Every structure is written in C-alpha cells, then in structure tokens.
Amino acid sequence: MIDAAIDSAIAQIRAVTAAGQGPTVRTFFDEATFTATHVVHDPATLRAAIIDPVLDFDQPSGRTSHQSADAIIAYVRKEGQTVDWVLETHAHADHLSAAPYLQAALGGAIAIGGEIVTVQGVFAGIFNEPASFARDGSQFDRLLADGERFSLGGIDAIALHVPGHTPACMAYVIGDAAFVGDTLFMPDYGTARADFPGGDARTLFHSIRRLMALPDETRVLLCHDYKAPGRDHFVWETTIGAERDGNVHVHAGVSEDEFVQMREARDATLGMPRLILPSLQVNIRAGHLPEPEANGMRYLKLPLNLF
Ligand SMILES: [Fe+2]
After folding, report:
1. Ligand 1 mean position to 87 CA, how many Å?
2. 106 contacts 80 by C-beta, under 8 angstroms
3. CA-to-CA distance for 87 and 187, rounded, in angstroms?
4. Rounded to the nearest whole angstrom, what is the distance from the C-alpha of residue 92 to the centroid of ligand 1?
5. Which end of the chain has a smaller Cβ tally under 10 Å, C or N?
6. What average pLDDT does range 284-294 have in this prediction?
7. What is the rounded average pLDDT of the residues 241-251?
C-alpha cells in the first residue's frame, strides 16, 4: 500500500485491463511547443476529455491563433464525441492554453488541480496582478484534489496530485491510461525540470515514485516530447513498466538523493522556456487573456530581470 489514492488508481487500472475496456486516445502534437494534446474518449458513449490544449501564439507579433485548437474541434465533431472535460495537468510555462476557446466550441468543464491557488498567488505577485484577479481558482469550473474521482461516460477516472514540477501538477488516470503531465517524459529523455517558482526536485521524485506504483501495463501519456539522443521522431506514449525499468533519470534503481542531485544540476543549466511569461499570465486565468485596458486592447506584461 502506498496511499489510498494510488490504491484506488491501481484497482481501477486492473479492472479496466481485465475487462479490456480502456478509453481511446487520439493525440495532437504541437511541434512549435513540443506539446502533446490528448483527446481521450469512451468508445461506448463517445464522451470525451481534452487534455492540455494549445493556443497558438506568435510572440514577435503578439498574435494568438487557433489552428491547433481548430484541428481538435474538427476531429471531435467528425467523430460525434461529446466533450465533458477540458483538463489541465498544470499551469503550463511553455504554451498558452486554448481551454476557453475549446469550451466555447465544444462545451465541457475546465478543470485543474486545487493547488492552482498557490500558483495563482505566486504569479499574481510576480505580475503585480490587480485586486480584480481572483486567486481562488474561480476562473476554472472545477478544482480537483488528490484521489478525487470523476468519470468519462462509463469509464472511471481519478485525479492524482503529483507536485514537483509545479505545486499544482496533476496526473489524470482515465481507465487504464495515465495522463502524467510534466512529471515523467519518455524513458530515454527522463523527467520534467523542477526549478520554476514553487517547484522542487525532491517533491517531484516522490510524485514519480507514486506514479511508478501503478501497474506495469498502465498506459502513460506524456504532455511533451523533445525527441532524445539517437531518436529522430516524436513519441508521447509509454507504460509504467517501461518507465520503472528504463527511465534515464529515475528508473527503479535511482535513489532520491541521486535524482535530486542530477535534477538540480541539470536545471541550473537550463534557460527559461521561450513562452514562460506570456503562458503563465494566460494560464493562471484558465486560458483567458488579461482584461482589456481602457483603450480596449489586451496586454501581457514583461517583468524585467526577474528570471
Ligand atoms: Fe510544464
């Protein structure tokens, strides 16, 4: 026994595997930000969830666009699916979220982990957000806690709090498929960085060990892939067994201290993600753009000499 939430997830995965009735996943990969957006659905009821959708953003011009999101809308409509959920695994630092755009077109509740309030508090300070910016997560329709159950048609799902990359990171286990956000990447690439405000390598290690307690056959769907030395194509799906056996940063033989040392040394060499400043200002608002100013224009801030 690891803990009650993981035990429930294990029971759920075993039941789904035994019955052979897992969800179907279709992935849309955005090469501009290396983000995998997953559309997962129950084949029996065609109820669907969209996980980590991307709003296209051209930073030099400050222009947002919807090519990536429109491809998802076209797919969902063509397949006749009904969207119940638009799930964010965390407040992303590398892309803007298209959750509100997809919700307007397809419906569904926008959900994220309840610890988003911590992230909102930190970044409200960094961006000197006005008092009108709510720090209680109310921009989202639903805040999920560790172990909280939800469903996708006839398929059971459970939310797991997996902090470390950010304090609010969640994994969503839908049937036998675990959408792990920025925790694990492909075994040959390793793990997510843990040096953003509120991130912590030791915490990430514990979250990953919880995920690795899931059954070997658990399907693992990633939020990103960056290829890896010797691999020239993108991959975004693996299994818990493959991660436990072979993840270059955190396979079963790696100790907590070894991981923390490696992660912190590596993070010290990484530059900030290209879109971190625009992304956070939008994503702490559940993907809504900042309110227009008196002239009707919306603006993003650029804090100087912060990172
Ligand atoms: Fe991230």
Report:
1. 14
2. no
3. 24
4. 4
5. N
6. 97
7. 98
Distance 181 CA to ligand 1 centre (A): 7
Contacts of 20 (CB under 8 A, 6+ apart): none
- CA-CA distance, 178 to 93, in Å (whole number)? 21
pTM listed for this prediction: 0.97
User: Cα torsion for 290, 77, 32, 137, to the nearest 10°?
Assistant: 30
- With a cut of 80, say whether residue 1 has pLDDT above it: no
Question: Max alpha carbon distance in the chain (Å)?
Answer: 59
CB 221 within 8 A of CB 242: no
Give me ligand 1 centre to Cα 94, in Å. Answer: 6
Protein residues placing their CB within 5 Å of the ion ligand 1: 92, 182
Residues in the chain: 307
Q: How far is the CA of 89 from the centre of ligand 1 (A)?
A: 8
CA of 193 to the centre of ligand 1 (A): 8
- Token code pair at residue 201: 């390598």
In 77-198, which ranges are E strands?
A: 82-87, 96-97, 109-113, 142-144, 149-152, 155-161, 170-174, 177-179
Distance (angstroms) between ligand 1 centre and the Cα of 19 equals 33
Backbone torsion region of residue 280, taken as left when φ is above 0, otherwise alpha when ψ lies between -120 and 50, otherwise beta:
alpha
pLDDT digits (tens, 9 = 90+) for 88-120: 999 999 999 999 999 999 999 999 999 999 999
Q: What is the distance of C-alpha 134 from the center of its chain?
A: 22
Task: For residues 76 and 70, give the distance between their C-alpha atoms in angstroms, rounded to a whole number.
Answer: 10
Cα(273) to ligand 1 centroid in Å equals: 10
Distance 149 CA to ligand 1 centre (A): 23
Residue 112 Cα to ligand 1 midpoint, Å, equals 13
